[in-house]
Amino acid sequence: MVQEVIKTIIIDDEFPARKLLSEYASKIANIKLCGVCDNAVHALELLQNEEVDLIFTDIQMPDLSGMEFIRSLKNPPLIVFTTAHSEYAIDSYELEAVDYLLKPISFPRFVQAVNKVQERIQLLRSKECETKPEKDYFMVKADYKLYRIDFVNILFVEGQSEYVTFHLKDNKKITAYYALKKLEEELPSRDFMRIHKSYIVSLANIESVEGNLVTIAGQKLSIGKNYKDLLMDRLNC
Length: 237
Prior knowledge:
- By secondary structure, the chain is of the alpha/beta class.
- The chain has helices spanning about 15-25, 40-45, 65-70, 90-95, 105-130, 180-185, 230-235; strands spanning about 5-10, 30-35, 55, 80-85, 100, 135-140, 145-150, 155-160, 165-170, 175, 190-195, 200, 205-210, 215, 220.
């Protein structure tokens, strides 16, 4: 699996520490070093112009400590603290730091921290996918207007050459320039099914099936011979 680029900055008031962490970062292909700062104030300036995924920061620094710096951020990126002092570990976890590296930092320990960062990013991405609401409508142009059509209001769609007519609840109809095949791909397959070369129907609104006819809102629609078995399977018949 291709790993995504992790845009990173390093903050440390000591030059040897900045140099070492920069060298470590350069050895990892998907780490993109966007900045190396000798204090947290410079890092704040950098963040105004650069979105980053990860910050390696020392804790004890003049003017603004690493802890104070992170607390000042409204939406901080992922954080790895790098310090010679173990007593701040509990505070770091309260700030939801991914890792806490004690100096001197070895390269294997640095790699371990990066792996934890990658795991956290993957977890966050998966949660975003789980919580992202699925689109439940689309917009179509018809009669020189732009209409919003909610999936839940569709009874069935009738294809007519290069046009389709949306048969909606409350006896509404909207005819728009649209390909039925494209529409079939965009409508959620769990709720809609093509039953004929000219029809896509809402499964929840099927009133009855008799022979090769489906009844929806009192209207009888033909079932194509290639769709009958699949339709009956979908209806658990």
